[in-house]
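Input structure tokens:
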């Protein structure tokens, strides 16, 4: 059965976000964290004394609840090639160029300081 335009089971206009249960759970978790900020610091210090990596993993897992994850975006040219394929940087003459090679002073006395 193909999709029908304006099907009430598919058309979800007016839906603005998560349902009330999800919203209440997020608020409760945020309140739990907020009420235990001092304890969290102590707990992280305890974990970090034994295993700093585990403490960092805990911070990352906790932050996933409150900091939105960034989506990966890949930019390509029309034909799918890299946008930077033709990009060239000019920073002056190459390292082995005669324009770049300079004679070194024969003694330290010839160096202006």
């Amino acid at each position: 059965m193909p999709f029908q335009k304006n099907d009430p089971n598919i058309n979800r206009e007016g839906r603005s976000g998560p349902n009330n249960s999800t919203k209440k759970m997020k608020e409760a978790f945020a309140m739990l964290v907020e009420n235990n900020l001092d304890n969290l610091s102590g707990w992280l210090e305890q974990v970090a004394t034994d295993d700093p990596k585990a403490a960092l993993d805990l911070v990352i897992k906790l932050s996933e609840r409150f900091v939105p994850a960034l989506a990966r975006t890949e930019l390509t040219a029309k034909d799918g090639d890299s946008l930077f394929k033709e990009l060239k940087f000019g920073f002056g003459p190459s390292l082995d160029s005669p324009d770049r090679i300079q004679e070194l002073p024969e003694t330290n006395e010839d160096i202006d300081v």
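The first helix runs from residue 20 to 35. The CA atoms of residues 8 and 54 lie 48 Å apart.
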